[in-house]
Amino acid sequence: MADSQHGNIRNRRRQLLDALSIAGRESSTATVMFHTAIAEKAGLTATDAKTMDILARHGSLTAGELSSHTGLATASVTSLIDRLEARGMVRRVHDRADRRRVIVETVRENTEGDTSFFGAMQSTIEALVKDFSDKQLETILEFMRRTTDRVHAITAELSAKGKTGHAAPSVQRKTKKTRTR
Description:
The protein is mainly alpha-helical.
């Protein structure tokens, strides 16, 4: 392959990667604004609303499991549960099998109908991708799953850092141990 063709291929790839980065940022912004609008309609924060979505999709979870799903520090999740509990949207219950374990569950009578916005979005997405092949959908799905995994990891890392941007002392100790192995 001639140097100019190789350069054109590299240039095209750089253009595609840059466009993908911009499209991802625009999609992220649109999604945050969508979830903020939904949350405001319900009188919640976007984090509160997304936590309710997690509980709707996964069922009852412990605070630790919510921390894993959100990427938020456990102290933040405790405050989050407190807010939702004060609004009557969730309750803490003891696990019947292990009374020491506390599970967060939705209060169905206070949250019914809160998923109607997501049904409309589901219909919109299905109409959008109706002409995509199964292979294209598999590629998009793989990309979304990998991106989500990375975003969760970065969120957890950011949540573990203090306002100064430095890892909390317990996180720093774990990092040092990991590095010495």
